[in-house]
C-alpha cells in the first residue's frame, strides 16, 4: 500500500485547521486522565492485594516500558498508513487495555492489571506519536512549541482531575478494600476511547505527510533531512534529553507525597496528598504560562532557562528541609511544565521525510519513566530528601541539550532571543537573492544554499 497523499497546514481552510486542532488536542486529556489514575491505583492495590510499594510500581514499569517498546513501532505504522490510522490503532489498544480491567478485577489478578496497563501504555504511546507530531506540524514552525504546550496543558488538567475524582468518589469507604469500583472506572475509560475512535472515523482529518513537509523545507533551501535518519543528531540527542527528563519528572512525582510527609512540619499523609494535587495544578498552570512566553521567546533559549531552574530547584529540594524544601518542590513542578513539549518540537524540527520516525524516537524517551524511579527509590528507602539528587542528573542532561542548541544557533546565525519561522525567513532570503540574480551571482548562490546542520 502506498503512503497516503499529504498536505501542509498552510493548505488547510481555517475551519478544517481548527477542527483538526481541537480533535487532536482532546487526545491529550485522554492519556492525562489515564496516567493520573496510576498513582491512585498504586495505593489502592497495596491495600487490596497486600503488596509492597515496590511490587505496586510494576504498574509504572508496565506503563512507561510500553512507550519504550511500542513508540517506534507506532511511528513506522504511521509513516506507512498515516496519522489517522495511527490514532485509530492507539485508541483501539487504549480501549482494549481498559476493558480487560474488568476480568482482572472480577478474578482479583494483579498480574492481569499489570498486563492491561501495558496494553494501555502501548495505545497511549501510539497516540502520543500521532498527536504530538501532528500538533507540532499543524501550523507555523515559529509557534510549534507554543501550540504543543497549549494542547498538552489539557493533559496537565486531566492528570490532577482524574485522581481527585477517583479518590473522592470511587476509592473511599468500603470501596477502599474492594475492586468493584475499578471495573466501572475503567469501563468508563474504555467508553471514552470508543467514542473518540468513532469521532475520528467520521472526521476528515487532513494527512500532513513527511514528503509534503520536506518539499516545503527544500523550497527554502533547508535540506537537513536528505541524510540518513541516524545522522539527525538533533533528534538523536533529543531522545536522550527526553529520556532523562521524563525519568526525572516521574521520579519527582513518585516520591513527592513521601517527601512532604517526612519534612517534620506537621503535614499528614492526607495533607501531603492534597499538596501533591496542588503541585500538579502548578504544573498545569505553568504549561499555559509557557504558551504565552513561547510566542515571543526562542524555544531553545527558554528551555535552557527552565532546565537550569529545574536543576537548581531539584538540588535545593535534596539539600533543604522543612517548608523551604516544600516551596522548592512547588517551584520545580512549575519549571518542569514546558520541558517535554519543547524537547519534542526541538528534536523533531526540520526532519522533513523523517518527521514521523523522529517523533517515535522522541516519544520512546518516555520510557525513562520506567528506569529513574527505581534508582531514586533505592535511595529514598534510606533518605527521601537526598533521593532528589537522582532527578537532578536528568535535568542537567536536558540543560546540556538545550544550551547546545542555543550555542549551535548562535554560531550559525547569531544569538536568537525572539522565536522565528526559519522556513519563512529562508524563503525570503532565497527570493531576495533570486531577485538580485545575475549569471555570475547564480553560481555563488548555489554554493551558498543554507543547510541546517542541527
Automatic annotation (TrEMBL):
One of its GO terms (molecular function) is transmembrane transporter activity. GO terms for cellular component: plasma membrane. It is found in: Cell inner membrane. Pfam families: MFS_1. Residues 427-454 are annotated as: Disordered. Its main location: membrane. It is a multi-pass membrane protein. The chain crosses the membrane at residues 17-38, 58-77, 89-105, 111-138, 150-171, 183-203, 300-318, 324-346, 386-408. Keywords: Cell membrane, Membrane, Transmembrane, Transmembrane helix. InterPro entries: MFS, MFS_trans_sf, MFS_TsgA-like. It comes from the Eukaryota. PANTHER family: L-FUCOSE-PROTON SYMPORTER, PROTEIN TSGA. This is Major facilitator superfamily (MFS) profile domain-containing protein. It comes from Steccherinum ochraceum. The lineage of its organism: Eukaryota, Fungi, Dikarya, Basidiomycota, Agaricomycotina.
Amino acid at each position: 500500500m502506498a503512503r497516503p497523499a499529504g498536505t501542509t497546514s498552510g493548505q488547510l481552510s481555517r475551519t478544517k485547521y481548527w477542527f483538526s486542532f481541537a480533535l487532536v488536542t482532546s487526545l491529550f486529556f485522554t492519556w492525562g486522565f489515564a496516567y493520573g489514575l496510576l498513582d491512585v491505583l498504586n495505593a489502592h492495590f497495596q491495600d487490596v492485594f497486600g503488596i509492597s510499594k515496590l511490587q505496586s510500581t510494576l504498574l509504572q514499569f508496565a506503563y512507561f516500558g510500553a512507550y519504550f517498546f511500542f513508540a517506534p513501532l507506532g511511528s513506522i505504522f504511521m509513516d506507512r498508513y498515516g496519522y489517522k490510522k495511527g490514532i485509530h490503532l492507539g485508541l483501539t489498544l487504549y480501549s482494549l487495555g481498559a476493558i480487560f480491567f474488568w476480568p482482572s478485577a472480577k478474578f482479583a489478578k494483579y498480574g492481569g492489571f499489570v498486563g492491561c496497563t501495558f496494553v494501555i501504555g502501548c495505545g497511549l504511546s501510539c497516540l502520543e506519536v500521532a498527536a504530538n507530531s501532528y500538533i507540532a506540524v499543524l501550523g507555523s514552525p515559529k509557534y510549534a512549541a507554543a501550540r504543543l504546550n497549549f494542547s498538552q496543558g489539557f493533559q496537565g488538567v486531566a492528570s490532577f482531575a482524574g485522581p481527585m475524582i477517583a479518590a473522592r468518589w470511587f476509592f473511599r469507604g468500603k470501596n477502599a478494600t474492594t475492586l468493584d469500583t475499578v471495573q466501572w472506572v475503567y469501563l468508563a475509560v474504555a467508553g471514552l476511547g470508543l467514542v473518540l475512535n468513532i469521532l475520528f472515523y467520521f472526521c476528515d482529518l487532513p494527512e500532513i505527510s513527511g514528503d509534503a513537509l520536506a518539499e516545503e523545507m527544500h523550497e527554502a533551501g533547508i535540506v537537513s533531512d536528505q541524510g540518513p535518519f541516524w545522522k539527525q543528531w538533533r533528534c538523536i540527542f533529543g531522545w536522550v534529553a527526553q529520556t532523562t527528563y521524563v525519568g526525572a519528572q516521574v521520579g519527582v512525582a513518585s516520591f513527592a507525597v513521601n517527601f512532604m510527609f517526612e519534612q517534620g512540619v506537621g503535614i499528614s499523609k492526607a495533607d501531603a496528598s492534597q499538596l501533591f494535587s496542588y503541585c500538579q495544578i502548578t504544573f498545569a498552570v505553568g504549561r499555559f504560562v509557557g504558551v504565552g512566553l513561547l510566542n515571543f521567546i526562542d524555544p531553545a533559549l527558554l528551555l535552557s532557562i527552565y532546565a537550569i531552574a529545574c536543576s537548581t530547584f531539584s538540588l535545593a529540594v535534596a539539600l533543604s528541609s522543612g517548608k523551604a524544601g516544600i516551596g522548592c518542590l512547588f517551584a520545580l513542578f512549575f519549571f518542569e511544565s514546558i520541558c517535554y513539549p519543547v524537547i519534542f518540537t526541538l528534536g523533531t524540527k526540520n526532519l522533513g521525510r523523517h518527521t514521523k520516525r523522529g517523533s517515535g524516537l522522541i516519544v520512546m524517551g518516555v520510557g525513562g519513566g520506567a528506569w529513574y524511579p527505581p534508582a531514586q527509590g533505592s535511595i529514598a528507602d534510606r533518605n527521601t530528601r537526598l533521593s532528589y539528587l537522582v532527578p537532578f542528573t536528568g535535568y542537567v542532561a536536558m540543560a546540556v541539550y538545550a544550551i547546545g542548541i542555543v550555542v549551535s544557533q548562535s554560531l550559525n546565525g547569531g544569538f536568537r532571543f525572539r522565536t522565528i519561522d526559519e522556513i519563512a525567513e529562508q524563503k525570503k532570503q532565497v527570493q531576495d537573492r533570486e531577485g538580485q540574480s545575475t549569471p555570475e551571482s547564480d553560481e555563488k548562490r548555489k554554493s551558498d544554499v543554507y543547510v541546517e546542520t542541527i
